[in-house]
Amino acid sequence: MGASLVAPCYTRAMNSRLRKIIERAETWAKPAQDELVQTAIEIEAEQHGVYHPTADELRVIDAALEEVERGEIASSAEVEAAFGKLRRG
What we know:
Blueprint: H1 12-25, H2 30-48, H3 55-69, H4 76-88
């Protein structure tokens, strides 16, 4: 993104805030740092229209595809019942 395309709210002050939070994050526990990294990756993907799933997400996707291959899918009635519960709150 060229400098002329950057929204006015993304100023030097915003960059300074980002640098400061990154510096503080260096002192965080590893799980918190990992969460920050994953969040940043997701934000970046939204900016570029490309999403790269995590290893955990890929495992869940693979398991779901295996269930479908085995014919383990919900019937239309089961799906409607589940959505009905969600609609009712």
